Amino acid sequence: MLTRPPRTLTxxxxxxxxxxxxxxxxxxxxxxxxxxxxxxxxxxxxxTIDQAAATQRxxxxxxxxxxxxxxxxxxxxxxxxxxxxxxxxxLFGVLSxxxxxxxxxxxxxxxxxxVSTFIVxxxxxxxxxxxxxxxxxxxxxxGLRGGGPSPLTLALAGAxxxxxxxxxxSAVLLPRVEVMDTFRFWxxxxxxxxTFDHLALGVPFLLTGGLLCWASAGGLNALTLGDDVAxxxxxxxxxxxxFAGAGAVILCGSATALAGPIGFVGLIVPxxxxxxxxxxHRWLIPTTAVTGAVLLVGADTLGRVIARPSEIAVAVLTxxxxxxxxxxxxxxxxxxxx
Length: 338
Prior knowledge:
Blueprint: H1 7-27, H2 35-42, H3 49-82, H4 94-109, H5 114-138, H6 151-173, H7 180-183, H8 196-215, H9 217-223, H10 227-232, H11 237-259, H12 265-277, H13 281-305, H14 314-333
Helix pairs in contact: 1-2, 1-3, 1-13, 2-3, 3-8, 3-11, 3-12, 3-13, 4-5, 4-6, 4-11, 5-6, 5-11, 8-11, 9-11, 12-13, 12-14, 13-14
């Protein structure tokens, strides 16, 4: 069995990787830019044509960092509060619920305010999460009073909810051919077309969700031992689930409002990070945030490079990149819960 590297070394390596993919994201695309010009753009210079072009790529790079971190932290938190290794914002239908809420708001209620979009997306995420939880509880022998849903019923309820919400999004959009290009964003997530103004609106929501999850790290550690043991250690499982779940929902809704539904990041990143930093959520949550950012920035850069002069949406690439790695982790770890 491989020995885990020191956590400080892992943190330094991840920050170095984030720096490298950030520079690559600014430098590479439909038109390659010298690394020196990319570095100059990152430090605020735009005096040459190449530096100006690199500057235009900064918003999508920052957005990829923010969304990747948010989805990874949300996935880590959801896996902890449900004790389900398959918990993921995409597989549990939370991202699809947020997208459906926004699409319905735009199509039927004329939603056009960006702040309202964030609020509606968060409400859609919360509604989908609550729906999956209730259906999961009803699928157990004890119903809503049976001590909560099992990992299997949660996974089944989440998969069904994600499929249903995705179908409803298509049903709303397909008759509106004239706006399909605009609404396609809500079917396949992407970070292209990002602006700092739009990202700035999401910062308060992202920070709130992230802080709620991180503040719950101690309680999440106790939850891994079971509710009875957590209670004996002085933790409140219900309170931990409430605050951590609220943080995960806010992160999912905000990420969807910023970039559309992007799946698989919240599934693969927590498993990968547990291999190197263990299960202490005080370390795991910030580590998954950085790793999620690295994954999404790298996937976005790759999508621009391999499809020149066009590009592949990042939500198409994340499952393709993450699935083989997830299969390797499952085979290596022989995860009992699966």
